[in-house]
Amino acid sequence: MKAVKPPRMSICVVRHVLATLVCAASLGSVTGNACRAGEYNPTLSIGDAAPLWKPLPSADRKQFGSKDFAESKVLLVAFTCETCPYATDYVKRLTAFSEQAANKKWPVAIIAVNSNATPRDQIDAMKRREPAYPFPYLKDESGELGKAFGATRTPEFFVINAERKVVYMGAFDDSTDPEKVTQSYVADAVAAALKGESPEVTETVPIGCNIRYPRRRRPRD
């Protein structure tokens, strides 16, 4: 197993500087590990139990929690949003992958999560998105789920195996230019997880916009 190194070490340093702040957050409706940073993730390491979450509202006016995907052998959790050009560029790739998985009848559940606190990323904007995602698109209003995963970018992807452990986290593939992709990290990780194996590449640096989590006001004395 290996992790792909970032182009600049400063990115990695920033991830770890953020770790203390993320670990200090209260995760009331989310169950996960004590903070244990990965190589590029400020919270999770490969092999950690994936965070569980209570039902969150979706763009199709339903609610989904982690228990709703118990029948799926593999989970793919994608942190995305409505306002980041990187995230919107990857919509077609993620949708194409979901269609491929459905056609091959893979026992894979794909869940998109929006943890961004910007006005244009609220649930009403998600409900108006066209075309709609062919998989659940959840609004993480408090930001607790994103913080539990240690997600810092949109898009950012996590592949979770049958034992509900994280086997891959990071970028979808190795190029933001679809014509230059030579390795599809997410597809490879899902294929490996379906076989009960670990992917060759387990962690990469997510490329995209910073997630803007809700700010918490300090209590007055």
From TrEMBL:
By its UniProt entry, which Pfam families does this protein fall under? Redoxin
The organism's superkingdom is given as Bacteria
Keyword hit for Signal: yes
* CDD domains in the cross-refs: PRX_like1
Which SUPFAM superfamilies does this chain map to? Thioredoxin-like
Q: Which Gene3D superfamilies match?
A: Glutaredoxin
Q: Where is the Thioredoxin domain?
A: 44-191
Sorted alphabetically, the keyword list is:
Signal
Please list the GO terms describing molecular function: oxidoreductase activity
Q: Where is the signal peptide?
A: 1-24
Q: Which InterPro entries match?
A: PRX-like1, Redoxin, Thioredoxin-like_sf, Thioredoxin_domain
List where this protein forms a coiled coil: none
Q: What name does the UniProt record give this protein?
A: Redoxin
Q: Which organism is it from?
A: Stratiformator vulcanicus
